[in-house]
Design goal:
This protein is α/β, with parallel strands linked by helices. Helix content is 38%, strand content 20%. It is built from twelve helices and 14 strands. Helix 3 packs across helix 12. The radius of gyration is 24 Å and the shape is elongated. The protein starts with 11 loop residues before the first helix and ends with a helix. It binds glyoxylic acid and manganese (II) ion (MN) (2 copies). One manganese (II) ion binds next to loops.
């Protein structure tokens, strides 16, 4: 099926206005939170429902047909021109996530969804030779179930039985939460991608300092580093803080603290390795009681999967040695593992061209943060464009974005749509030539 060649054109003024609107919408969505005064919006929460109501309105205003899927993803469908429409029309997905970490910034994930909507708004009702689906994924951060990417796993068919059996802090299993969501939304659709999907594009703030340092507004991601999340339990003996001599203690917190510092120092001496213990709970948790049980998270990332695996083995061996010396039992559980992912070379070349046609020297980047693109890339061709993060700050309320960079992203996005359409067209032509010869 031939894709028409009509290209989209939008003026600087349109981009500036759309960019300001996208930023203002991110600011408004900051009010959809579980904790007033901080931004915290987790998987299938009432705050997420409130966020969906706003995003749905904007999607519908842009001319999209909007549904939620069974995994809680919000999906806006903008049909191609009438000649191509129907389930066999080639389809481009533009997406990112709508959930947040606790006490988050305003732009991580959310901006990528709003840029997708703004790109459709920039079309002012014109249609391309491909369908566009804008997806606001339900969970990328993994806060509620300790399992990131629930939304993108569901659309790629990689949300599996062991994932569904996980329980949140209130003991609610993931499958139960999904069933109640479906009962509250009787019009949910099957999350799986339409088979005619040809590509995925994600815009995201960089969440680091590289673009700002280089004086660039945009960059193109080539690789997303691999990541592992583990949970360690240090089991000692709780006892009286006043009567137990120091040499007779089995203090689980002291053991965990020694291990946290050892991990920090080992990670710091391996180039490119990052390791974080961001969450720690102590039991029974009183000032006058020695900690008997400590549960500690560990997040490890590196561009090389082998280096990441070796580092984890080393961290676990260190925990074992500390436990033995202090007579503390140490257990671990691997909660999540995701290999490093290269994005699609053809779509990345299109993204590079789209960015350079927007007047920015293309900068190839590796992402240390995880993104929905990471789950989607092994299934369909995916590309990512980063926007500069002022101060390099993210996962923090001071997270920021420059409206001029958002306008540049929109310009690059329109270029991407035009180039992607040409690319589909060329592939169709070369396919039909190879059929004739
Ligand atoms: C997501 O923000 C992650 O990289 O943890
Ligand atoms: Mn994040
Ligand atoms: Mn994100």
């Amino acid at each position: 099926m031939r894709v028409p060649m009509g290209h989209l054109e939008t003026t600087d003024k349109d981009y500036e206005l759309l960019a300001r609107t996208a930023v203002a919408r991110c600011d408004l969505l900051a009010g959809c939170t579980e904790h007033p005064g901080r931004i915290t919006r987790t998987f299938l929460s009432p705050a997420m429902e409130a966020c969906h109501r706003h995003v749905r309105n904007w999607m519908e205003g842009a001319g999209m047909a909007v549904r939620v899927d069974r995994a809680g993803n919000l999906r806006g469908h903008y049909a191609s021109d009438t000649l191509q429409s129907g389930e066999h029309a080639p389809n481009l997905i533009i997406g990112s996530h709508l959930d947040t970490v606790p006490n988050a910034g305003r732009y991580d994930g959310v901006l990528g969804v709003l840029l997708g909507i703004a790109l459709v708004e920039a079309m002012s009702g014109r249609r391309l030779g491909l369908d566009i689906e804008v997806i606001g994924f339900s969970d990328e951060e993994g806060v509620r179930y300790g399992l990131p990417f629930i939304g993108s796993r569901a659309v790629t068919g990689t949300l599996l039985a062991p994932h569904l059996a996980r329980r949140d802090a209130n003991g609610i299993a993931l499958f139960g939460a999904l069933d109640s969501y479906a009962a509250r939304h009787p019009d949910v659709i099957n999350p799986k991608f339409n088979p005619s999907v040809r590509g995925y594009l994600e815009f995201h703030i960089e969440q680091g300092p590289v673009l700002e340092h280089a004086g660039l507004g945009l960059g193109v991601v080539e690789t997303i580093v691999g990541q592992s999340r583990l949970r360690l339990t240090f089991r000692g003996r709780s006892d009286h803080a006043g009567t137990t001599p120091m040499f007779l203690r089995h203090d689980a917190l002291a053991a965990a603290a020694e291990w946290v510092l050892a991990v920090e120092s080992a990670a710091g001496s391996t180039p490119g390795l990052v390791a974080t213990t961001g969450q720690l709970t102590c039991e029974p948790g009183a000032a006058n009681v020695i900690s008997g049980l400590v549960s500690c998270s560990l997040d490890v990332r590196h561009g090389s999967d082998k280096t990441r695996q070796l580092a984890i083995e080393d961290f676990l061996a260190t925990a074992g040695a500390i436990g033995q010396r202090r007579q503390i039992e140490v257990e671990h559980l691997i909660e999540h593992e995701q290999a490093a992912v290269d994005l699609d070379s053809a779509l990345t070349a299109i993204a590079n061209r789209a960015v350079s046609d927007a007047g920015i020297l293309p900068r190839h980047m590796t992402s240390g943060a995880g993104h929905d693109a990471m789950i989607i890339a092994p299934k369909i061709p995916a590309a990512m464009i980063f926007l500069r993060s002022p101060g390099g700050i993210s996962h923090h309320p001071d997270e920021a974005v420059l409206p001029e960079d958002v306008a540049l992203a929109l310009r690059a996005g329109t270029n991407f749509l035009n180039l992607f359409q040409d690319y589909l067209n060329t592939s169709v032509e070369s396919e039909s030539k190879s059929c004739i010869t």
